[in-house]
Each structure stands twice: as structure tokens, then as C-alpha cells.
Specification:
The complex is a heterodimer.
Chain A lengths: L1 H18 L5 H13 L29 E7 L3 H14 L4 E7 L1 H9 L6 E3 L3 H9 L8 E6 L1 E5 L20 E4 L4 H13 L7 E3 L2 H9 L4 E5 H7 L4 E3 L9 E7 L6 H12 L1 H9 L7
Parallel strand pairs in A: 1-2, 1-3, 6-7, 6-8
Antiparallel strand pairs in A: 3-10, 4-10, 5-8, 5-9
Chain B lengths: L5 H10 L10 H21 L2 H8 L2 H34 L5 H8 L1 H4 L2 H12 L6 H6 L8 H27 L2 H8 L4 H12 L1 H17 L2 H7 L9 H11 L1 H24 L7
Helix pairs in contact in B: 2-15, 3-15, 4-9, 4-12, 4-14, 7-9, 7-13, 9-12, 9-13, 10-11, 12-15, 14-15
Classes of the chains: A alpha/beta, B mainly alpha.
């Protein structure tokens, strides 16, 4: 009975996978198997978010070189997509597919057996979870860091000058919840500065914080890279206390990944000068 | 071939289902049933029973459940107040553009909730169509419990309208016509004939709206925000807990499933024949 059910579930998922666009077939396949093998995992629904991942497959690349599958934190989407293109140019014949999602979702998928080659996390915590789960090969390498910054409505109409100003009672401030990395960083800044915020909302991702600014909130706390990415939809107010709370991004090859050589090559690219240049262009700081 | 013709009929009778359906229909039907039940069973298997009670009685969990029940009740009442007249108009009135009106009313049913949330931001948000005027009067909707109720009502209203309209059409207008010829005015007909006639449909519509409100996630997350005790309903709490504590997320999911099952049983238990 159990076997029959598993076959049934797999068949259903195959149908679903077939419905997905062909451009991200590599990623979809990975997601599907994660869901299939993780039928007991509560976070399986989260793999749906992975379908939003993009593929960096180059046009007309021959299939002989193999496909590298990279699971990376959502905040790395722009930079890693660019690096994927660089990687394909440097290694003709290879294809890089990405699965961009929240780091904790990615850990769940990888520990559930998703065939990833590389895992890049947005914080140490989730990488530690992956290492503890026995799915990481070797020691993770830190490749970038990110700090918090204040974003306000365009032009900063409330005249927010620093972190302490966010505690003013008439301000609507939106932050990340302490459960997610950006919220944990916010909490540390609060502890360091002794300023207690009374946010109107604690979001589960930076994207949602930025979304609430569109909803009319006065200010939010996001990463420098997110503020840069949001362009002129927000005004950034950097504050000095942010530099004391640094969020570090680690990367590591996944144990048993189908492409171990390509994986280490990709990690070399990320940690090497080309990768670092792309990252700093997006506002990331080098790893401490 | 001629002798073979009665055979399927006999076999059908032998299957003893009394449904008059060909036997092969049951295979995909059972498959579909497994498709729905299997994930729930898989989740159940993951519940850490030893910590279950501690997990679901934590302060944030209780706040979230309580907020969910409060806001869902409020939005169900709003749905009844707004949706009942809507269903009456759609089922009984005749005017040009009726079809279009019905399609528009049912729109939230097919919209992804996130899209609904975005639309609500641009309506009631601080910089929104109505929100900017409300702001002038010092009324702020975004980030309040009111925003949660608005989001839930927006997505749940079509369920009530659809369910009730179906009941109204099934009930027909004969009794109403009779009551009218006996001299009852339209309000009396509505109060004494129409509404009692479709009460089961009204009930199941309200229960459906409540259930949809309880499960609302996307529009709330996008429009209302997420703050414990104010806007963080049970689905949002589950989504957040999942980041750090998968066990707590599973435990809370089970609570939501139990509430949902109770709701479904409630509708099936109270004669909802014909409605949906």
C-alpha cells in the first residue's frame, strides 16, 4: 500500500512538473523530487515557491558539459543569475540552473533529497542547519556580507536621520520578524543601541517589508542590497550602528551532488575576483 | 455482441453500490480521494505529540488562533450583511449587465489572494484611492485588525454569494409569487418566505465564508501586515513559525485542519442539500 501511494504521488508530481515551463525544467525536476521524497515534511508546500526560480540557461549551449544546480538565497537572485551567465561563458557546454528561495526553505528541500550541487545561504544559521543535517560536503566558505539600512518613503518626508528616530511614536515602522535573519539582525541592533522599536508589522521577508512601504508605512529596516535594488521607490538612510551587526553569506558544495567538479568551480567563481566584483556592484560587502 | 449487452448491467448491479455508475468511475474517484487525504496523513505523521500541547498553547499561538476566530467571525457577519442582498439581486433581479455583475462579484474567487492584497493596498492603503481620504480624517486601516477583516471579507464574499444564489435559484419563485398575490409586500415576502426557504443555503454559505476567512493568507500578508495579536492570524503564524520551528508549524497546521474539519462536518450535518 505504501509503495502504491508513493508511486501515485510521484506520478501526480510528474504531471505537475510537466506543466511547468520548459526553461526551468532542471529546477522543476529538483523541486519535484524534493517534494516527492519529503512527503512527511511539513514544509513541502514551500517548494511551490521554488517554481518562481529562474533559469540562467544560455541560448544554444550544447548539453554535453552537464548541468549545475545551485540553490541560493532569494537575496542573491540578481547577482547569482549574472554569475551563472559568466560561468557558462567560462565553461562552454555547461548549464547553470538556479533555485532561489528563502534559505530555510532551501535547507528543507536539500535535506529532503533535492539534487542540488551548491547551496548558498543568506545566513550562518541555515548553513549550520544544513551542515548538521549532513548534506554539506566540506566546510562552508563565507563569500559576502550584508548590513541593515533604513528605507523611507521617497524623499524621506518624515525627516528620519538615524536609528533612534525610528522609535518616535507617530511613525509607522515595519521590520522583519525575529524568526528570520533580517529580523534577528534588527533585534541585535535594538539591543546594541538600547532603542526599542514598536513596529506596526513584523514581516517574514525583506520583500514584504518593502511591500509595506508601498502600503504607506513611514520606514522599514532592510538590507543595503535590497535598498539599492528598490531604486528610487525608497530613500535610504544609512545609520552607523548597522555596521556592528553583519549578516554573513556562506556557500558550500552539497554532499552527493551530481556535479561535484562544476560545484567547486562555481564556488571558486563566487569567491574569486569576478564574483566579488558582481557582488560589490549590487551593494554586498566582502566577507569579514 | 447481442448476448454481451446485458452483462455490464448485471455486473453493475452485482457491485452493489446502487449508484448506477460504471464501476471504473470508482478507481479515479478513490485516487482523487487519496490525493487529498494523503498529504494530511503525512502531516499528521510528523506531529510531535509529546510537545503538541506546549506548542499550540504558546502565547503567540493562542493569540493567533484567537485573532483568527475573531476576525473570521467579523468577516462572516460582513459577508452576510453584504452578500445576502447581493445574492438576492443576482438571483432575482433582471437588469442589463447582470452577467457582467456576476462575473465581477466572483472575481476574488479566481484571483490569487496576493493580487487581492495588492488591490486592497491601492484602495485602503495610506496612499490608496480611499485610504488617502481616510488618512485626512485620521483613520488608518493598514496594519490594523480592520485590515485583516477587510482582506478576509474580500476573498470570502463570493463564497457566500455563490452558495446563496444557487439556493435561491433552486428554491424557485413560486411561493414568493403566491405570497405576493395574497397581498404580502416585498419586504414581508423576503422576510417570511424567501429567507426561510433558503436558510440552509445561507447557513452553508456563511460557514464556507468563515472557513475561507480562517484560511486567508495571501491578501492578509500583503495588505494587513503581520504583528502578534493585531494582524498575525493563524496561517501567518504558521508561515512564520516554519522559519525556525517546523514542529510548531506542524502542530498549528493540525489545529487549523481540525477547525476546518469541524466546519465541513457542520455544513454537512445541517441539511445543506443542493447548496454547492
Amino acid at each position: 500500500m505504501r509503495g502504491a501511494i508513493a508511486v501515485l504521488a510521484a506520478a501526480g508530481l510528474t504531471v505537475l512538473a510537466a506543466c511547468a515551463s520548459s526553461s526551468s525544467s532542471g529546477t522543476t525536476g529538483a523541486t519535484t523530487s524534493a517534494a516527492a521524497s519529503a512527503s512527511a515534511s511539513p514544509s513541502v508546500t514551500a517548494s511551490g515557491s521554488a517554481s518562481a526560480s529562474s533559469s540562467a540557461a544560455g541560448s544554444g549551449a550544447p548539453a554535453s558539459g552537464g548541468t549545475l544546480t545551485v540553490f541560493a538565497a532569494a537575496s542573491l537572485k540578481a547577482t547569482f543569475t549574472e554569475m551563472g551567465q559568466t560561468f557558462q561563458e567560462q565553461n562552454p557546454g555547461t548549464t547553470v540552473t538556479f533555485n532561489f528561495a528563502g534559505s530555510s526553505d532551501l535547507v528543507t528541500q536539500i535535506t529532503s533529497g533535492a539534487p542540488a550541487d551548491v547551496f548558498a545561504s543568506a545566513d550562518q544559521n541555515n548553513m549550520t542547519k544544513a551542515v548538521d543535517g549532513g548534506v554539506i560536503d566540506g566546510t562552508p566558505v563565507n563569500f559576502a556580507s550584508n548590513t541593515l539600512t533604513i528605507v523611507t518613503q521617497p524623499g524621506n518626508p518624515k525627516g528620519i536621520a538615524g536609528f533612534a528616530d525610528l522609535a518616535k511614536p507617530d511613525l509607522q515602522v515595519v521590520v522583519c520578524a525575529p524568526q528570520v535573519p533580517c529580523g534577528a539582525a534588527t533585534q541585535k541592533v535594538e539591543q546594541n543601541t538600547g532603542v526599542t522599536l514598536t513596529p506596526v508589522s513584523e514581516e517574514s521577508s525583506v520583500t514584504d517589508v518593502l511591500g509595506k512601504l508601498a502600503n504607506g508605512a513611514d520606514a522599514g529596516l532592510v538590507y543595503v542590497t535590497d535598498a539599492k535594488n528598490a531604486g528610487d521607490k525608497v530613500t535610504e538612510v544609512p545609520f552607523p550602528e548597522a555596521s556592528a551587526v553583519v549578516n554573513v553569506y556562506p556557500i558550500a558544495p552539497v554532499k552527493g551532488g551530481p556535479q561535484p567538479e562544476l560545484a567547486s568551480k562555481f564556488i571558486e567563481l563566487v569567491t574569486g575576483p569576478d564574483g566579488q566584483q558582481i557582488l560589490s556592484g549590487a551593494g554586498f560587502q566582502p566577507a569579514p | 455482441m447481442t448476448t454481451g449487452a446485458p452483462a455490464p448491467a448485471r455486473r453493475r448491479r452485482r457491485a452493489g453500490t446502487g449508484s448506477g455508475l460504471p464501476a471504473w468511475v470508482f478507481a479515479p474517484a478513490v485516487l482523487g480521494g487519496i490525493f487529498i487525504v494523503l498529504p494530511l496523513a503525512a502531516m499528521l505523521a510528523r506531529v510531535q505529540w509529546s510537545q503538541f500541547w506546549t506548542l499550540i498553547t504558546s502565547e503567540s499561538s493562542v493569540d493567533a488562533l484567537w485573532l483568527s476566530l475573531k476576525t473570521s467571525t467579523a468577516s462572516t457577519i460582513l459577508c452576510l450583511l453584504l452578500g445576502t442582498p447581493m445574492a438576492l439581486v443576482l438571483a432575482r433581479a433582471q437588469f442589463p449587465g447582470l452577467r457582467l455583475a456576476r462575473s465581477l462579484v466572483l472575481l476574488p474567487l479566481v484571483l490569487p489572494p496576493v493580487v487581492g492584497g495588492i488591490a486592497l493596498i491601492y484602495t485602503y492603503g495610506r496612499l490608496g484611492l480611499i485610504g488617502s481620504y481616510l488618512e485626512a480624517f485620521g483613520i488608518r486601516i493598514a496594519f490594523t485588525t480592520t485590515a485583516v477583516v477587510i482582506a478576509q471579507t474580500f476573498v470570502a464574499l463570493p463564497f457566500l454569494v455563490l452558495s446563496l444564489e444557487g439556493s435561491l435559484r433552486t428554491a424557485g419563485r413560486r411561493y414568493e409569487a403566491v405570497a405576493a398575490t395574497l397581498g404580502a409586500n416585498p419586504t414581508t415576502v423576503l422576510r417570511r418566505v424567501t429567507i426561510p426557504l433558503v436558510l440552509p443555503g445561507l447557513f452553508s454559505g456563511a460557514v464556507l465564508a468563515f472557513a475561507r476567512s480562517l484560511g486567508e493568507f495571501g491578501a492578509t500578508l500583503t495588505f494587513a501586515g503581520s504583528l502578534q495579536g493585531v494582524t498575525r492570524t493563524l496561517p501567518l503564524e504558521i508561515y512564520l513559525q516554519r522559519e525556525t520551528d517546523a514542529d510548531a508549524a506542524v502542530a498549528l497546521s493540525l489545529v487549523l485542519v481540525v477547525v476546518a474539519v469541524l466546519i465541513v462536518l457542520a455544513t454537512r450535518g445541517r441539511g445543506s442539500e443542493g447548496a454547492l
